[in-house]
Amino acid sequence: MRHAKHTRGRLKTKPKGPTPLDDIASSLQEMAQSSSALWGSGVSAASELSDQTKKAVLTDRGRYETLVAAKRLKEFLSEGNAKATLGGVLYYDDPEATEAEETAKMFCKGFEFGTGYIPTKSPSLGPKTLPSDLRKRKGESPLERAVKKEAGGLVADKEKNAVLVVGHQPAIGWLAGALLDRPVPIVQSEILCIDLEATGGPALRWCISPPDETVLQALQDKIKSKMGLANLLSGFITAGLGVFLGMLADDKKMKALGEQAPVVFIAAACLLLAVALYLRTMFSYDTLLMPVRFWAESSSGTSHRPQWIVARPPSGAHWILYQNMLRIWQWQFIPATFLTLSGLFLLLSSVAFGTPTNAHHVNSPISPVIIVSVPVAILLLILSAKTKDIVRGVRRGWRNFWACHGLVPKFRYLCGPWLGSED
Q1: Tally of structural domains, the chain
Q2: 285 and 220 share a domain?
Q3: pLDDT at 19 (0 to 100)
Q4: CATH number, domain with residue 158
Q5: What span, in angstroms and rounded, lies between the C-alpha atoms of 306 and 394?
Q6: How far apart are CA 354 and CA 260, in angstroms?
Q7: Separation between Cα atoms, residue 93 and residue 143, nearest integer Å
Q8: What does the alpha-carbon distance between residue 186 and residue 192 come to, in Å, rounded to a whole number?
Q9: d(CA 66, CA 382)
Q10: Contact 161/196 with Cβ under 8 angstroms?
Q11: Do 106 and 131 belong together in one domain?
Q12: Using CA atoms, how far apart are residues 413 and 394, in angstroms rounded to an integer?
């Protein structure tokens, strides 16, 4: 969990030489907005702002969002929807940055831990954390190791298996990214559930986020732009395929290609598959633009939910859109683009390095096997870089994959879209 929204007054350091008017105006505006009661208190502005800087205070909005998140988490866990029992709260301790401490205490109040419960201090999650703390050694980074050690004492009871960690950015984001092996966005007062004992490695199970209607609209606008790009590329390739197929029907042109003719047919197959994936990308993004009100649940049960998507509830619709958008981009749009580039490369290579048909042909013929092996080698390099993710995905969801009935559900299980708990 990232600490809640807070207010902080800051005085700008006076630069050497003439001060630009923009900096003066900005400094005055910050001083005026820092505290409505500042000017009538009889205390100097510098000392008041200095005290504010040392003692950060959560905003009313930040307190409210933290309380709502805590109550929502308590309700969700009490319903038995998650196999988690919260054992305690761990927060970053810094006398000059008390946002995490105040957020932890506010969470305990909303979660109703009980009178007398005091959150545990952690020295590892502050804003002074360095990127070098994330360099993995023996499978874990120093930051992961330190936080796990600090949290271990809170789950000594066998009935407790979860700890809430409250910290600052960028350390809290780095910690989540190190555990999941990928960057994870986290806003203030947001709770992410990371299952460290999941099959195949740590997994993001669900999220509890503060309400923000603007995020959903921004995501839909982003999806529309990606959908338009896929539409443009599919139309361009389809137009080119018409000319391309006309060439394949010409016997004289095919004879001129000689032994490179099979390469041309492979290029045509790549472009046809690319068009199919671009069209599928458009339809998938169109599904994401469906109003949330009409997202339906299937009867297959939440046990068939892919591991790459968070559970809803308690996760908000914006998380479902965000993860589906990335999944479709990575598993549909990017493969379509790779097929497009491979098809164009094979086509141009077959023409440029075809068998000489006259004395004026200056290029030496290249074996079709060598030409085809170039995109194949690039594909193997990409897959080798993603081996860890592929193996983890297979270990996590192969049983649920085969439990999906039909080719279309299986495709959507792998490549999206997958709305709700089960779509």
Answers
A1: 3
A2: yes
A3: 44
A4: 3.40.50.1240
A5: 11
A6: 6
A7: 15
A8: 8
A9: 42
A10: no
A11: yes
A12: 12
Which residue matches tokens 């120093």? 142
CA distances (Å), 243 to each of 70, 246, 255, 257, 336, in order? 61, 5, 18, 16, 20
Question: So what's the pLDDT on residue 281?
Answer: 95
Q: What does pLDDT average to over the chain?
A: 76
Instruction: Return d(Cα 281, Cα 331) in angstroms, integer.
Output: 9
Residue 106, class by beta-carbon neighbours within 10 Å (0-12 exposed, 13-18 middle, 19+ buried)?
Answer: buried
Q: How far is CA 214 from CA 105, 219, 256, 314, in A?
A: 29, 9, 59, 19
Same domain, 177 and 243: no
Is the pLDDT score of 253 beyond 80?
no
Tens of pLDDT, residue by residue over 11-50, are 333 444 444 444 444 544 444 444 333 333 333 333 333 4
Is there a single domain that holds both residue 162 and residue 17? no
CA distance readout (Å), 385 to 204, 330, 375, 377: 22, 14, 15, 13
* Residue 1 lies inside a defined structural domain of this protein: no
Give CA–CA dist 203/161, Å, rounded. 15
Q: How many residues does the chain have?
A: 423
Candidates 318, 308, 336, 273; CA nearest to 418 is 308
Q: Which two tokens stand for residue 57?
A: 């205070």
Residue among 23, 19, 27 nearest 45 (CA): 27
State the amino acid at position 18 in one-letter form: P
For residue 411, the SS3 value is: helix
Domain that holds residue 138: 58-208
Report the predicted TM-score, pTM, of the whole model to 2 decimal places: 0.78
Adjacent-strand bridge partners of 140: 137
Under DSSP, is residue 182 helix (H, G, I), strand (E, B) or coil? coil
- What is the amino acid identity at position 400? N
Distance in angstroms (rounded) separating the CA atoms of residues 248 and 265? 8
Residue that the structure tokens 């510098």 belong to: 46
Say yes or no: 178 and 291 in one domain.
Answer: no
- 90 forms bridges with which residues in the sheet? 120, 165
pLDDT digits (tens, 9 = 90+) for 101-143: 889 999 999 988 877 788 888 877 666 666 665 666 556 777 7
Look up residue 330 and give its two tokens: 């990575």
Residues 108 and 49 in one domain: no
